[in-house]
């Protein structure tokens, strides 16, 4: 029987899976509900300005990085230069600079805490060593938790004697390691780490799994990139590759029903069109599964997946602005975190991404587009009155914080709009506006992650809720695992 793969959702995970399979010669159809590719890494235009929807900082493009390997396999290498100065981290009492060079970065941090120099250097020495060991598993990229005999065998085959050094850290949090280095009470240092972790791990130093935290704190040093135009270019490259290899890509197709048909599947979109497939890869928020699968199929999903559907992650408020940078003392830097010291959510911490002055894919000369996001709890948005009040309060809180760092910022705004939870639900399919995947705590990471195996025959899931987690690298890795399970090959 000829096998045909249906991929639902053209986020980074679905595009990765679909393009890899098409490159390998598989018959692939990819359906996307939106008119844009990329999901949370897509784009939209307003007048003469282009805005990245969410994800903005390019990662995984270094030699051997996840995206670099995918693009190389597809024959579509992306040539961009890493940032030597990755970002500013503006806190209430200090501004830290994240440098790509590890020694320069540690020297800069130590300069803020000279009395803790030896402890901080020892802490980073451990972080870098642990991350380097974990990274040796990035090449084979075993799936967790292993769900088949082949995956268990591949995991065992991927292990080396050096990985034994990771065992003492396996069930530890970063908080425990900070205590070990006597740094847990160095609050400004810890808060700086929290700011980095909330954006990548969706939680702070107290609860984050240490092995993943080490990789998250080290990965910027492997390579962080400004991608002209935005990360939607990842999506466009993979979409082009899929169609060039004979795949079918259809936009504005919302799947409303997915049913078993014999040994295969049949999907029905909102227009009544049907699509037959032997294998299905769903790159949709897992909360949508209960809407497109019948209750008897939902009951057969893996327990971890069903539990995840009932779980709750972060919502976000995102601000999109166009800035007349000629009204500022100097152009805005590409990436900046701002922390007011009032927590990691609700405008107390936010990530600010700006187009570079010469990036005319995003804005004409003299202007910059800016995407700003802050974590928020869904309970803050659960009534119409609270919804509008939260949007107004958080927007003002963010603008006030930026104004203190960038005098004249408000006067330089020529366009502004917001993406609150309902917008994320409407345009990106994120049920209740939940984004970013689960916090990478000990009870949700590694062997406790959600597998790409759904529990139903030949039905796979990928995206930011699936191992290894959020971000474009995590989504791509889950897509790789889904493609491997369909093809029975390593692929990359």
From TrEMBL:
Pfam families: Amino_oxidase. GO terms for molecular function: oxidoreductase activity. GO terms for biological process: carotenoid metabolic process. Gene3D superfamilies: FAD/NAD(P)-binding domain (3.50.50.60). Residues 12-486 form the Amine oxidase domain. InterPro entries: Amino_oxidase, CrtISO-like, FAD/NAD-bd_sf. It comes from the Bacteria. PANTHER family: PROLYCOPENE ISOMERASE, CHLOROPLASTIC, PTHR46313. This is Oxidoreductase. It comes from Planococcus halocryophilus.
């Amino acid at each position: 029987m000829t096998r045909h793969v249906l991929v639902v959702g053209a986020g980074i995970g679905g595009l990765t899976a679909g393009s890899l399979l098409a490159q390998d010669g598989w018959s692939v159809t990819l359906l996307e509900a939106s008119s844009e590719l990329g999901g949370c890494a897509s784009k939209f235009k307003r007048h003469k300005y282009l805005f990245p929807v969410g994800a903005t900082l390019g990662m995984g493009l270094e030699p051997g990085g996840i995206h670099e390997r995918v693009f190389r396999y597809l024959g579509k290498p992306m040539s961009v230069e890493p940032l030597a100065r990755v970002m500013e981290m503006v806190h209430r009492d200090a501004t830290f600079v994240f440098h790509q060079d590890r020694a320069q970065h540690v020297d800069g941090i130590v300069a803020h805490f000279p009395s803790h120099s030896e402890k901080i250097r020892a802490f980073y020495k451990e972080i870098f060593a642990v991350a380097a060991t974990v990274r040796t598993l990035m090449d084979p990229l075993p799936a967790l938790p292993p769900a088949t005999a082949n995956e268990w065998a591949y995991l065992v085959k991927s292990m080396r004697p050096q990985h034994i050094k990771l065992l003492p850290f396996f069930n530890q949090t970063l908080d425990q390691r900070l205590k070990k280095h006597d740094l847990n009470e160095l609050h400004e240092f810890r808060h700086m780490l929290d700011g980095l972790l909330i954006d990548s791990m969706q939680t702070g130093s107290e609860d984050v799994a240490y092995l993943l935290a080490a990789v998250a704190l080290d990965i910027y040093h492997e390579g962080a990139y400004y991608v002209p135009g935005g990360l939607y270019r990842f999506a466009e490259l993979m979409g082009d590759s899929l169609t060039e290899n004979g795949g079918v890509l259809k936009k504005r197709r919302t799947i409303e029903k997915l049913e078993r048909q014999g040994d295969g599947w049949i999907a029905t979109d909102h227009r009544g069109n049907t699509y037959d497939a032997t294998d299905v890869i769903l790159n949709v928020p897992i909360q949508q599964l209960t809407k497109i699968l019948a209750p008897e199929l939902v009951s057969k999903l893996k327990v971890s997946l069903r539990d995840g559907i009932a779980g709750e992650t972060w919502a976000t408020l995102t601000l999109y602005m166009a800035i007349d940078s000629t009204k500022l003392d100097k152009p805005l830097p590409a990436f900046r975190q701002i922390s007011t010291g009032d927590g990691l959510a609700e405008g107390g911490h936010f990530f600010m991404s700006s187009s570079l002055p010469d990036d005319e894919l995003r804005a004409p000369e003299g202007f910059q587009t800016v995407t700003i996001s802050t974590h928020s709890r869904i309970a803050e948005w659960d009534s119409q009155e609270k919804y509008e009040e939260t949007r107004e309060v958080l927007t003002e809180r963010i603008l006030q914080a930026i104004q203190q760092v960038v005098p004249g910022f408000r006067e330089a705004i020529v366009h502004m709009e917001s993406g609150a939870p309902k917008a994320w639900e409407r345009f990106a399919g994120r049920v209740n506006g939940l984004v970013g995947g689960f916090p990478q705590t000990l009870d949700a990471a590694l062997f406790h992650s959600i597998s790409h195996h759904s529990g139903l025959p030949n039905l796979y899931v990928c995206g930011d809720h699936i191992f290894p987690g959020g971000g474009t690298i995590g989504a791509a890795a889950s897509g790789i695992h889904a493609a491997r399970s369909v093809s029975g090959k390593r692929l990359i």
